[in-house]
Amino acid sequence: MDPEKFISIDDESISLRQALGYLRFTGELQPFLMRILRQHIIEKELEQRGEMEVDSTRLEQTIINFRLQNELVQPDRFDKWLESQGLNYTTFRYQFAMGLKVEQLKNEVTSERVEQYFNENKPLFEQAVLSRIVLGDRAKAEELKRELTEDGVDFATVAREHSQTNDRLYNGMMGSVAISQLPPQVRDALASAQPGDIVGPVEFEGRHSILRLEERIAPTLEGQLKRQLQEQFFEQWWQSKLQNKNVKLEIE
């Protein structure tokens, strides 16, 4: 590749030097270079590990899922899409195979750390299903709390009639939330609460919340949580591979 003719617009060429200059000016050069280094580290690791087998059935199913999700089932439509992307089917299939290899690598280099971190920090991932009644007046909140706990007034009715947040339309139901993401004072109030308990009023940002704990959801290492932790530790893994390496941009 001629670095002086990296991209052309009509008869005008943009050199690689110019392109990097544009990226530097817009603040996008650093993340651009990091993506390149990330891919380089991954491919070198795959080379060192030797031939990594990709399950052909899984590969074909992944491709089918992609075509279904992107409405590319019809052969002529798929062929036009490949052409628009500058791909042929062989290259397209290779990209998906590489993607599965990277996922396999990600699992191999992070599985132990992910499981250890999860087991050591389970309380961080616990979720709770909550309902709430939110008021601006502390005295009114305390009065309603007494009615709920001592007089047995229906929580949903009180939420619909008195709460100042939109979830009053759903009987005050907030749904499932990660306990670690709740304000500290709310976490403290829920620390020893059991399903069905009503706690509060808890003050937060000038308002007072009465909370009912509907359910505690024990965390499991699967789904989105597992993927998030894998991504977190995979990023740490490849960046650690760059430590003590001399990385130099040859075109300035």
Give a verbal description of the structure.
The protein has two domains: 7-118 and 230-242, no CATH class; 127-217, Chitinase A, domain 3 (Roll), CATH 3.10.50. Strand 5 and strand 6 (207-217) form a beta hairpin. Helix 2 crosses helix 10. The mean pLDDT is 89. It contains ten helices and six strands; from the N terminus they run ββααααααβααβαββα. The chain has 252 residues and is α+β, with helices and mostly antiparallel strands.
Helix and strand layout, with pairings?
Blueprint: E1 7-9, E2 12-14, H1 16-26, H2 29-48, H3 56-69, H4 75-84, H5 89-120, H6 122-125, E3 127-135, H7 138-150, H8 155-162, E4 173-178, H9 184-190, E5 198-204, E6 207-217, H10 223-242
Antiparallel strand pairs: 1-2, 3-4, 3-6, 5-6
Helix pairs in contact: 2-10, 5-10
What would the keywords be for this entry?
Chitinase A, domain 3, four-stranded antiparallel beta sheet, two-stranded antiparallel sheet, 252 residues, alpha+beta, single chain
Brief overview:
The protein is α+β, with helices and mostly antiparallel strands. The chain has helices spanning 16-26, 29-48, 56-69, 75-84, 89-120, 122-125, 138-150, 155-162, 184-190, 223-242; strands spanning 7-9, 12-14, 127-135, 173-178, 198-204, 207-217. 55% of the residues lie in helices and 15% in strands.
- Please report which band the strand proportion falls in: under 5%, 5-15%, 15-25%, 25-35%, 35-45% or over 45%: 15-25%
Rg, alpha carbons: 27 Å
| Main β-sheet, spatial strand arrangement | 4-3-6-5
Dominant shape: elongated
Number of strand elements? 6
Return the domain count: 2
Major sheet characteristics: 4 strands, antiparallel
What class do helices, strands and sheet pairing give? alpha+beta
Termini separation? 17 Å
Count the helices. How many? 10
Low-confidence runs (pLDDT<50, min 5 residues)? Answer: none
Mean pLDDT: 89
Q: Work out the helicity level.
A: 55-70%
N-to-C SSE string, H for helix and E for strand: EEHHHHHHEHHEHEEH
